[in-house]
Amino acid sequence: MKIALTGATGFIGRHLVAELVQRGHEISVLARDPAKVNALSWPGIRTIQFELNSSANAAAEVGMHDALIHLAWPGLPNYKELFHFEENLPASYRFLKACIEAGVPQILITGTCFEYGMRDGCLTENLEARPANAYSLAKDTLRKFLECLRERQSFVLQWARLFYMYGPGQTSTSLLAQLDHAIDNGDPVFNMSGGEQLRDYMHVEQVASGLARVVEHAECDGITNVCSGIPISVRKLVEQRIESRSARIELNFGYYPYPSHEPMAFWGDARKFQKIINLAG
Hints:
Blueprint: E1 2-6, H1 11-22, E2 26-31, H2 34-38, E3 46-49, H3 56-62, E4 67-70, H4 83-101, E5 106-112, E6 121-123, H5 134-149, E7 156-162, E8 164-166, H6 175-184, E9 189-191, E10 198-203, H7 204-216, E11 222-226, E12 231-233, H8 234-244, E13 250-252, E14 266-268, H9 271-277
Parallel strand pairs: 1-2, 1-4, 2-3, 4-5, 5-7, 6-14, 7-11, 8-10, 9-13
Antiparallel strand pairs: 10-12
């Protein structure tokens, strides 16, 4: 396939480009700074100059591809900021609409588990979205805009709702990255929340592999939870990381309050995702 991709230099994007190249696809990376892409030394990658707020020329080039994967979304992890729906939402919609009008037949977009809102338990794709912060509201609204657009123009819309990820390249403010830094620094204590919240974690390379499978199977449209389907407490996750590193560090539980923007215990229903990644090819 000829696949165009935004957000290639981000946490997920770097792993996804490598996966797609390994799987034999022809990749074009849309980037504000082509030098940043070139520095990664990806073999055979074409770079397209791209600015989300002025992307008409890029859209014309994207239209010549078999699929577009849209990962780019500036400003994370500031989930509550208004720019998500004041700036990112209209910019993404205009860009995606222009790509569809230019002829790209298939679009895969990464959404977020936060679209489900403040729900506990197992989250299935058929649940009504109840976004509770600006970021998830903007993402869910983008999906609805594109579903309305499909009533006028035919294209495949794949919406991949991401849960929690870890692995090489994760942001320095993420939980495990902070823990690794504390261990590397020889800190005697690691401050954290109470750790009893349940989450759904998956290694970023598994996420990338799954997203590659989704885009390869256009028949798998609509919403897909990209998740393990296995809940794990944050406390257990941290303890497993300490054990795997044979580290000695004391955990100071309850130092931070539980996040107000997340339910206490939730994980994804992974049945649709597992069917997709088990497809031959």
